[in-house]
Design brief:
By secondary structure, the chain is mainly alpha-helical. It has 3 helices and no strands. The relative contact order is 0.05.
C-alpha cells in the first residue's frame, strides 16, 4: 500500500501517550497515528447505501426475552427438520 506524507499539529500530551503506547506495544508511533487516522476516516465516511436498506415486519417494539427465545427455538426446529442428515454434504 502506498502512503502519502502529511503534517498535522498534535497536543504534546497526546503525543506523549502515543510514544508510551508505541514502546509498550513494540510498534512505531507512526503506526499508532496511522491507525487513528484510519479510525477517523471510517467514522466520517459517507456510505453509498444506508446500513439498513430493507425493512422487516414486526411489532414495532423491542421483543421480550421470551419472544426472542421462542423465535430462535422455532428457527432451530425448522432448520433441523428440513435437513434430516445435518453435517453431511449433498
Amino acid at each position: 500500500m502506498s502512503m502519502k506524507r502529511t503534517n498535522v499539529y498534535a497536543d504534546p500530551k497526546d503525543l506523549a501517550i502515543i510514544k508510551e503506547a508505541a514502546k509498550r506495544r513494540g510498534i512505531s508511533e507512526a503506526e499508532i497515528i496511522r491507525q487513528g487516522i484510519h479510525l477517523a476516516a471510517m467514522a466520517n465516511r459517507v456510505w453509498d447505501e444506508p446500513l439498513f436498506s430493507r425493512t422487516f415486519e414486526g411489532p414495532g417494539r423491542t421483543p421480550s426475552t421470551t419472544e426472542v427465545r421462542d423465535a430462535v427455538a422455532d428457527a432451530v426446529r425448522r432448520e433441523t427438520s428440513a435437513d434430516p442428515h445435518p453435517g453431511t454434504a449433498a
